[in-house]
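Worked problem 6 (solution included).
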Amino acid sequence: MELIPILPHFQAALNLASALLLMAGLRAIRRHDRASHQKWMAAALLVSAIFLVSYLFYHAAVGNVKFAGEGWIRPVYFTILIGHVALAAIVLPMILLTLRRAPWKTPGITCPPHRRIASRTLPVWITVNLSGLVVYLLAFHLFP
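Solution. The predicted structure is:
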């Protein structure tokens, strides 16, 4: 079985997994369970890194994928895609900055700089995951 044709489906699963892991991390920190929060967020970061490597590999092999939908769906699709790409371009630096500001070695302290940037990073990260799923569904299932 060839790898390239299954990568978009694998990437969609990674996007969904990342969104769910991020929500679990948010739930953990809202319960003040910092240890669980760190594990959930580390898992989300790992899954997102695997996604990025897979995505770059896929597009290096395939190039751009032409959207086959016609009529009213084209401007809808490209609006979602443009928003997704713009947010995806800024979310990686946001994630790295959020990670850099996380308190690693001092249990029990709060870290206002981490909270401030995380409160902006998390919604962008989840939006990128979910809009990526919408792009995938439109391009590979609804309008292949």
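Discussion: DSSP finds four helices and no strands in the chain.
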